[in-house]
Amino acid sequence: MAGSIVSIIGKYTPRDKSNLIAILQNVQKKKGYITPEAVDSIANHLSISRSQIFGVASFYSQFKFYPPGRNSIKICLGTACHVQGGDFLLNALKSEIGISPNETTADGRFDLERVACLGCCALAPVVMVNDAIFSNMSVVKLKEILNQYE
Amino acid sequence: MSKQKNITAIIDGKPVQVRKGSTVLDAAQKAGIYIPTLCYLENLKSYGGCRLCVVDIKGIKGFPTACTTPLEAGMEIQTKTPALQRLRGEILELTLSEHPYTCLVCGDKKDCADFMHTTRKASTITGCNFCTSNGDCELQDLIETLELKDVRFPISYRGIPPERNNPFYDLDYNLCILCGRCVRICNEERNSNVLAFIQRGNNTIVGTAFNESQIDADCEFCGACVDVCPTGSISEKMGKWAGLPDRSTETTCTLCSVGCTMNINTRGNRIVNVGPKPGERTNPHQLCIRGKFLSPDIIHHPSRVTAPLIRRNGKWVEVNWDEAIQYTAGKLEAYRGNRFGMICSAQDTLEENYSLQKFSRKVMHSNNVDLYSSYPDKDLVMKIHPFLSSSFHGRTMDINKADTILILGADASVSHPLVENKIRKAFAMGRNILYANPFPTRTSKFANHEINYTAGEEYNFLYTLLAGIAAQFKEAGVVKAAKLCGLTEDDLKPFVEVLAKSRNLRIVVGDDMLRNGTGLDVLRALGNLSYLMGQKGKCNIMFTGYEGNLYAGALAGAHPDILPGFDTVSDAKAIRKWNHKWDAKLSNTSGFSCDEMLATIGKDGISALMIAGDIPMDPKLKKLKFLVQLNMFRTGLSDYADVLLPVTGFPENEGHFLTLDGTIKKLRRALPGPGKSKTIPAIISILAGAMNESGFSSSRTGVIWKEIESSIMLPAHKAINEMQKIQSIKPKSRKGTRDYPIRSNIPYDHFRYRGNSLTALVTDMQTLWKG
Ligand code: SF4
Ligand code: SF4
Ligand code: SF4
Ligand code: FES
Ligand code: FES
Questions:
Q1: Domain extents in chain A
Q2: Among all ligands shown, which has an atom nearest to the Cα of B191?
Q3: Could you confirm whether domain A2-59 is CATH 3.40.630.30?
Q4: Interface contact flag, A50 B208, Cβ < 8 Å
């Protein structure tokens, strides 16, 4: 576990902060998300603080700080989806699977993320599960769809 | 370098001349023209975040921010046009939309402030009346200046749970206006790097990695962020509800030998906080956890002794001063001479130690006077004396001016936080930091090269380092010495290479270098090192001693062999001089050191002790015939004491403190001592009087200071000695050297005041150590 992180980080020059993003990307590729242990190791290697690393990483939406679930739900809250009731969907989702955005269910079945526009506004509101887009969503439809994923 | 030039610009019709490179804001401030600011902080890089400092510059489109715009010659700047004021008002409205602003713009706020004070004690801050910063808040000031009457946006309350799980201060980021002052001071000025802006866009907030607590994020609890926050987001726990300070006293912290200047803000006889002056948040004096948080904690500690106590039939009885003094004086009469001993603290002022040792020598006829934290080797301080006279030229705050800093056996992060702060800053500035210590510490993170030598082999390490500099590493003796300290030539190479290039070296020497049985040899080696380096450029040595300033203690005469001003008891001329000055008959026999006093109790040595402060309990103390303790608290030691006299602490005292870089700093009284407590010189004065001795007639510190100033050479007046010559040194096996008890070697022990453990006294400290 820890060994693989060390081997990723070890490839970069110690104390050279300019590699931070690249290291984070590689860690995420390997681990699926940025673990607290990884942040520790990066901090030691680059001689910067954990807070600074977290500050940079959390600025970019590409980095996750929670382990990905088996299925990833992306709920769109872009302008069109928002107007079409994206918020209702989000609330329904929250009570259905019991997590807020940027969290993973305890059983690891789903993780949840909110996004701003998936590029199919005409079909709003839109939800994406893994690679599949579900359009013209309603609360009832949402529940049915979730049942298809284990 | 281009020559510094002045340039002239016109601000609000007034010509203003400032140095090239100044910003528009600098120029306006210099001309006394007020421009509202919020994120700007003197001495930090301009941030341009709040946009309140917008100005109008002829020929420049839009409204640039004054704090980030460099001034150019001939600029015509307006700072107060109606358009600007309107814009600022709107900016402030936007800022406030994320801050619970109800009270800020409430029409009844004046009456509310006058009559409804108690509403402040609420757990959720939903307006000024519930906020600790009420009355000392920059947002309130800005609303007044910009005459804002209403905010047109609804409050967007973040709903973040306030964090109260940290020691010393609470966080409520619902009040945060993201000015970034705390983040910048923690990163740029303190180089602690605990705080960062996390998340993005609307969710941006100040925080730590994974929202861990400040303890887990390695916060030093220096309190700098608390001091600079313009809102109530970060607030001290202590004094939180004490109200606004009505007085601010500038004094000196004596908790370590850095001797920081501090502002103690009081309301009546209570410390509200320690930090910047109220209403002047910018550019506060930097302090550390001890100065900022522990000094009020010990001053208002519930277990302070406030009346003299005498032990009667095994029980403490409160008595008045008359009785306490008569009793003590009567008892002490019987122990005049060598059976009496006096133990003082290096955290006391020059006046305090001067009076204590004078009492011991003149009244008690005993040279048994020493600091509790004195070096195990009595002669060491005497040998450091000529050293410092050639090295006192580097100021602590200038450390980062050196091109190279060599840190030897010091863990400044706990012993002298502000010295370490300067080291970190120097590292960030690209200076060379060489760190040699038996084990890695926090400083390791800020070192370019580190060597971990075997503990106890400090001397052999210095020997190998010197040999390395002289390119004699291959010699048999050197190889042997290197082996003893567990090093190879390769370990030393980076140090030697950097030192060879250095032309301005600062050496920071920790106490562990000198407390290992080879202290005198180490000192000689240091002499050679500074001689070698001094030939190529500048070389200054700084000694960072435990628990205050040992050198200053000795300078005031708190040393068995040293009279004030480094006169010695074995010098007949000096004895004559002081006999004359004090109208005394001083003994010329060398006194006992603290270790010797404690070791000879019960034998034909010490029978009576006076201890100013605390020392760890030792069953041997039970054998004393008489023990007087002068302390702020009842401690383990008090179980063996016969009299306990309540004394004041440094914020309650006047006097002078000598810092480790040789500066004499003033202490001013911020508040009176509690109850019947008295200052040490006052107690000594009445006690001497009761024993029919004169010369202690005044309890006022000013008189004692005059006496000190007129009779000894203080560092500032001292002539610079010749550079010391190189002395021959040889590697040494530690076998056969006397092993000294290392009394204070664990980090906790740096947190002491007059021997009292601050960790034992302050519960927040215990939380911190556990964390
Ligand atoms: S107390 Fe000091 S170290 Fe801790 S967060 Fe504040 S500024 Fe940073
Ligand atoms: S906590 Fe205070 S100092 Fe820090 S960004 Fe917020 S308002 Fe500014
Ligand atoms: S660094 Fe030393 S002098 Fe400064 S506040 Fe801390 S303990 Fe006091
Ligand atoms: S706003 Fe949801 S798809 Fe564009
Ligand atoms: S003070 Fe200039 S932008 Fe904040």
A1: 2-59, 71-146
A2: 1
A3: no
A4: yes
Q: Which CATH class is domain A71-146?
A: alpha beta
The whole-number pLDDT of residue B405 equals 97
Residues 438-477 of chain B whose Cβ lies under 8 A from any Cβ of chain A: 445
Q: Is B48 in the pocket of ligand 5 (CB under 6 A)?
A: yes
Structure tokens at B663: 């500066």
Q: Which residue among A54, A60, A61 places its CB closest to the CB of B209?
A: A54
Sequence-separated (6 or more) residues with CB below 8 Å from residue B375: B381, B514, B515, B519, B550
Q: Specify the higher pLDDT residue, B3 or B614.
A: B614
Q: Which residues pair with B163 in a beta bridge?
A: B171
Residue B243's pLDDT is what?
A: 83
Average pLDDT over chain B reads 89
Q: Which long-range contacts (CB under 8 A, 24 or more apart) does A62-66 make?
A: A62/A25, A62/A28, A63/A24, A63/A28, A63/A33, A63/A34, A64/A28, A64/A32, A64/A33, A64/A34, A64/A102, A65/A33, A65/A34, A65/A102, A65/B210, A66/A33, A66/A102, A66/A103, A66/A104, A66/A111
Res. B738 pLDDT band, cuts 50 70 90: very low
Exposure string for A90-128, b = 16+ CB within 10 A, e = fewer: bebbeeebebebebbeeeeebbbbbbeebeebebbbbbb
The bound ligand whose nearest atom lies closest to the alpha carbon of B750 is: 3
Residue B631 · residue B644 · CB < 8 Å: yes
User: Does ligand 5 have an atom closer than 6 angstroms to the CB of B52?
Assistant: yes
Q: Do A55 and B196 touch (CB under 8 A)?
A: yes
Conformational region of residue B512, where left means phi above 0, alpha means psi within -120 to 50, and beta covers everything else: alpha
Residue nearest to atom 8 of ligand 1 (CA): B186
CA distance A27 to chain B (A): 16
**Residue B23 DSSP symbol:** B
Q: Which residues of B461-476 are buried (b: 16+ CB within 10 A; e: fewer)?
A: bbbbbbbbbeeebeee
The residue-averaged pLDDT of B486-511 equals 94
Nearest CA in chain B to A60: B200
Spatial neighbors of A101 by CB under 8 A, at least 6 apart, are A75, A90, A112, A113, A114
Q: Closest residue of A to B444, CA-based?
A: A47
Give the mean model confidence (pLDDT) for residues B546-562: 91
Q: Domains in chain B, please, with CATH?
A: 6-80 (3.10.20.740), 109-299 (3.30.70.20), 309-373+551-712 (3.40.50.740), 380-545+728-761 (3.40.228.10)
Residue of B nearest to A54 (CA): B209
Q: Does A105 touch chain B (CB under 8 A)?
A: no
**What pTM did the predictor assign?**
0.90
The residue assigned the tokens 């004393």 is B624
